[in-house]
Design brief:
single chain, 2% strand, Glycerol uptake facilitator protein, two-stranded antiparallel sheet, globular, mainly alpha
Length: 258
């Protein structure tokens, strides 16, 4: 298994007529990391910003618009950055790709740090614009939703998200219109039914940034536990559905241009 994975990694270092790809050069890792910072910054601005804009300007931004914003943003960001970093935009996605064998564990800390940095920067920007209105657009369990139930909801949501992402990646469709629309569409569906229950975060970095900026971490553990459980479950489901990881999955997860 290790040799097969190394062989796949070696092959995706080449593009075109066996010319080295600049995106596969370890010296260019900063480009991938920056793409993750920028991508999740935009995602959190859209997600938390939609909630805040609805709270501050309810006559101009209705709940459907606030819920739709992160789904549309996800689609756009995958188009924009998918061929640079893989557009993970989420520590749970990076963990899922690594567990699946599509992404090197050595690169996981840099990606995860970038994602949290981008989420925190976006939350700071939102606080500058809106102050501490409506929990700074963070995610909290809805009325009557207990911690364990909220974890279960986030785990199920993230499992669906990760199976969508891994399934697209396995067929070399993570970079391009198919995955961008699939992942953005799934995010929309998840938000529409689960937003009243947990906010449908599915992303530890998306929730941690606003929680940190507003100084309230009481519920943050829910939005770490649920997505991480979901990522692990999704990897198991993907093995059952598709079998071993593929070269196309490696290419999609690592941001290798076609």
């Amino acid at each position: 298994m290790a040799k097969r994975r190394d062989d796949r990694a070696a092959r995706i270092r080449l593009t075109g007529a066996d010319q080295p790809s600049t995106f596969s050069d370890p010296k260019r890792e900063w480009r991938r990391v920056f793409a993750e910072v920028w991508g999740i910054f935009l995602l959190v601005v859209a997600s938390a910003g939609g909630v805040l804009a609805h709270d501050v300007f309810p006559d101009k931004v209705n709940p459907a618009m606030a819920v739709a914003a992160p789904g549309v943003a996800t689609t756009v960001i995958i188009y924009m950055l998918g061929d640079v970093s893989g557009a993970h935009l989420n520590p749970a996605v990076t963990l899922g790709f690594a567990l699946r064998g599509n992404f090197p564990w050595l690169r996981v800390p840099g990606y995860v740090a970038a994602q949290f940095a981008g989420g925190i920067a976006a939350a700071a920007f939102m606080r500058l614009l809106f102050g501490l209105a409506d929990n700074l657009g963070s995610n909290v369990p809805g009325p009557g939703v207990s911690g364990p139930i909220a974890v279960l909801v986030e785990a199920v949501l993230t499992t669906g998200l990760m199976v969508t992402i891994l399934g697209s990646a396995s067929g070399a469709r993570n970079v391009g219109p198919n995955a961008a629309l699939a992942v953005g569409g799934y995010t929309l569906v998840a938000k529409f039914w689960a937003w009243p229950l947990t906010g449908a975060s599915m992303n530890p970095a998306r929730t941690f940034g606003p929680d940190l900026m507003r100084g309230e971490l009481t519920h943050t553990w829910i939005y770490f536990a649920g997505p991480l459980i979901g990522a692990v479950a999704a990897v198991g489901i993907e093995w059952l559905l598709k079998g071993p990881p593929t070269e196309s999955g490696d290419r999609a997860a690592q941001g290798e241009p076609k």
